[in-house]
Amino acid sequence: MEWLGISYRAIGPELVLAVTGVLVMLLEAFSPGKKRRDGILAAAGTILAGVVALTLWDEGPRLAFSRMIIVDGFRVFFTLVILLGTLLTIFISWTFLDEERIPPGEYFALLLFGAVGMTLLVASNDLVMVFLALETITIATYVLAGYRREDLRSMESALKYFILGAFSSAFLVYGIALVYGATRTTNLAEMARLVSGSLGRAEVVLLMAGVAMLLIGFGFKVATVPFHVWTPDVYEGAPTPVTAFLSTAPKAAGFAAFLRVFSLTFAPLGIESVADQLAAHWVAVVTAMSILSMTFGNFIAIAQTNIKRMLAYSSIAHAGYVLIGVLARDWAAVAFYLLVYTIMNLGCFAIVALWARRGDERVLIVDYAGLGFRQPMLSFPLAIFLVSLAGFPGTAGFIAKFWLFKSAWGAGFPELVLIGVLNTVVSVYYYLYVVIVMFFREPREEVARVPLSRAFVATLVVTVVGVFYLGLLPTRVFAILNAAQSLLAVGMR
Amino acid sequence: MGEHLLSWLTFAPTAGALLLLVARVLLAAREEAIRRLALAVSLVPLGLCGSMLVKFDPAASGPQLVERAPWIRFFGFNVDYFVGVDGVSLWLVVLSALLVPVSILISWRAIERHVLEFHVFLLLLETGVIGVFVALDMFLFFIFWEVMLVPMYFLIGIWGYERRIYAAVKFIIYTMVGSALMLAAIISLYYLNGGTTFDILAITENVRAGRLVWDAQTERWLFWGFALAFLIKVPLFPFHTWLPDAHVEAPTAGSVILAGILLKMGGYGLLRFNLPLFPRATEEFAGVLGALAVISIIYGALVSLVQPDLKKLIAYSSVSHMGFVVLGIMARTEMGMQGAIFQMLSHGIATSALFMIAGILSERRHTRLIAEFGGLAHPMPVFSALFGILALASAALPTLSGFVGEFLVLVGTYTSELAQGRVYTVLAATAMILSAAYMLWTLERVLFGEITREENRQLPDVNARERLALVPMAALVILMGVLPNPILRRTDHAVLELQRAASRTILVQRAHPAPPDRGRLAPPGAEVLERR
To answer: How far, CA to CA in Å, does B444 sit from each of A15, A47, A384, B393, B453?
Structure first.
């Protein structure tokens, strides 16, 4: 594998995002309150970062910055997923910023800094880099979660997110320290080489403890049971566009890192190596996490009356599905799932954010009564996203789930597949409950139609088209992923 | 169009639905115009069916009018867009194309709210059901199988009666449980076959030729994975409880499609998947399923006897009549399977038409209680004649369609190798008496005797539009009863193939028992055994 030293090209997308973020902040300082200008600049920066990421596509597997940064097809793919999530979040926030009278500059800048952390996370090839990237993400998102300063729910959300985030970071850093103690390296490629052989008994014990800590840390970050308790409160209290962001882009980044650390570095090799000893344990634990996340997430979602909380539990359930892909060690399936989830969940939240209005007035599911025929521009897309989240064929959600289940069956996890498909039946109940309320019930009171901004319509078009395109004609995206798979760093496949 | 007849047939309704939306958005079409346009659009697939029937060769084996193109590739997704019809699916496609225009006609006045959306959902539903019958790729089949749930859910939930939400949710959850297990079975079948294709015919051929073998336990799991989905759909006792709710709460058009087409997807699935793919498990469980079928037949008839609600009565009679379908399939004789297919068609027409009859009554009187009527023969003579013919067809009076199907099933069961085949035949034949009893009694209570309610004295007879919907149905049940051959001749070849495939595979697998390891591709020697 080719090593690049200090190569600014290798962190091109991150540089573009960071520079745009600083620029937006500076502009805000000198001439505040120009939402249109700041928003367009932030969106342009995100798109430019995407273009720069695409130029890295053919670079093949390379390492840069003392092997801390990796350049490969999957990094580029995940980066694009994250940037798509960021771009759509910028659009979703358009109306929200006006309603809440929030200074737009800082808000967009924080989104961009969060995105820098996420893209760095998917590019990390070193546990120290993983930690730094995660902290960059969380610092930006703590502030975003508490953005409605005068609202108690938002403050509670930010505080909970901060305390539990710090707590999980502590686990993560402690895990990294123990792993370092056992292997004397934080570099993932080096570590993969070491664990494919044998280590002393003391080192193995230390490594086990370290990996367990890492698992807890990651479990918190991607919100899987039993480390999920913060999710519903944070998602409920955070401003809805921020919730949309939190539930998609950081999750994609977190799972990418999860894959790099567990599915690649500590992957079982089928020989008597340390990695196999480790895998015997983490596979069992992750299996349990996956089953618990799917089952708890779906069953508790049924009982929710607040749509944001319902979507929070649904995101826990989806994290459980994604863990199936992690166990099957199918990168491409996980990447596709997260792309699809980002699109359908952001579409969902776009509508929830618009309908919620100032101060999250209308976030109960009963508030959607009668929306169906009153404003079909909102209700039909929302129905499509919900049906896709439930995994109905014809939509992207189905192809993504089918792929995960198929891989898992092929990788020898038929019981996970059975639990997974039965869980989708449970999820149909609560997703379609919203549809029932929208279409089959009469509104409680006369409600005015909500005006639709151009940014919102653009978001809807992108997400609805995305859901159907990936659901009916996924071959092209599959081909891209196939190419990415062949570009995956050698020795890490 | 000749090249892609089945694709046109499948997607013409979708195109029609888009046309309706365009008409509303761009031309601001009014409701009456939307109804007319929907009717016109729904006649297109029916016309294409005529062309399909002309092109269909009854003597050819395998699927006809085949279209195949690669659809999804990479990562083990070797999914083809692969469609075709054979004797099993041919008439079910025709039935689907027939019942949609009829549903539109019958809903003309009944649907007043959200007319555009109603017709859009109805047309999308048509694409889904035709797709199920023509799909020859498991993945494609599953997509159509699930896609059609969503419009049906909306049809029940938006335009249904009082307890529509409960009924819609129950319908979708029941079906989803079945299809989730079927999905797992499809994935597992895909890997057992080597993980290269979802092609139903190729997998069936591998099973038939003994190239794809698995141990008995795997076969049982796979059998039930598919069978449960289909038995819930049929529905067979004890999986039938969603049906009365869905039927009673659905609008008339919804009931027509449910009874006429959706239930048939269950019988079709058993014939397409379970029989040819899992012959040993079918043999093992045929007795149990036959017994459940007989229970359905008797139970449905007994419950129908005591129903005060006309729609519920017809719903339970469906459980009874569909029991014959499962019984005929499980008999696995030529007569039995022919009878099952014929019974599906006959039930599809007669029972849907009875739901339209019930719809006409409840539209006029806003009640479905049988006790509210009586003596309708006087104010509504044409209606009464039609009701009489259809009810008797449903009760299997000779010379009407129901008789042909049920008679074939009974003979097929009697002559089958089912252990208790003769007992089943006797019990099922008894139920035919029950079905005559409840139907005749219903006719008596609704049509004959004195007029007991003043409101009924002035009820208008069926109008021209209702006649246009009902008369062809009545004509068809008579025609099918007198001249069943044009239908049977076209299903015969496929049925014989099914029967041969099932029995031959059993012979091959008995001579060459599967090794203990879970499914694998057998060595070439297995084929030699089969030829010998």
So the answer is: 84, 74, 48, 16, 15
